[in-house]
Design brief:
single chain; 151 residues; mainly alpha; Four Helix Bundle (Hemerythrin (Met), subunit A); 2 strands; 58% helix
């Protein structure tokens, strides 16, 4: 599962490779405000929420919304590659440390949003699902920016 999750993380990075901040902020199509940079920020928030806030039970706020609005990360209007990727890479590093320190994939924690116990296995599967879904969005966004397709 770790290898598959890492594959999806690398795919998102690949979809953003070689683009300027302006290109990374380019919207998909009206009325959507979806951008590659917004996806990177969103996935940083997803990593933070599931690994740090849920599995590790850390009392940390969302990165881009003190009010707990998960949609705020998508607004990349004033964001930069440096800021978004630093946050994402930091959260991935935290996630990797938490996963590596776990006794097994059967370790459980309470998920506040779902109000239920979840295993590390479920968390990793959920992250794989999130990346796979959003990497599909990233495929279309990248193709719209410069015609690049594949991988």
């Amino acid at each position: 599962m770790r290898a598959f999750l890492d594959y999806h993380r690398a795919t998102l990075a690949l979809k953003c490779e070689g683009l300027t901040d302006e290109q990374l902020r380019q919207r998909s199509m009206p009325p959507s405000t979806l951008t590659l940079l917004g996806l990177v920020r969103h996935m940083a928030e997803v990593e933070r929420t599931w690994f740090r806030r849920t599995v590790n039970a850390e009392d940390v706020p969302l990165r881009w919304s003190p009010d707990g609005d998960y949609q705020a990360a998508y607004d990349a209007t004033g964001a930069t590659r440096a800021e978004a990727f630093a946050a994402w890479q930091e959260e991935v590093a935290h996630a990797c440390r938490i996963e590596a320190a776990a006794a097994s994939l059967d370790v459980t924690a309470h998920n506040r949003n779902w109000d239920t116990e979840v295993s590390l296995r479920l968390v990793m599967l959920h992250l794989i699902h999130e990346y796979a879904r959003h990497n599909g969005h990233a495929d279309f966004l990248r193709e719209g920016i410069d015609g690049s397709v594949g991988a």
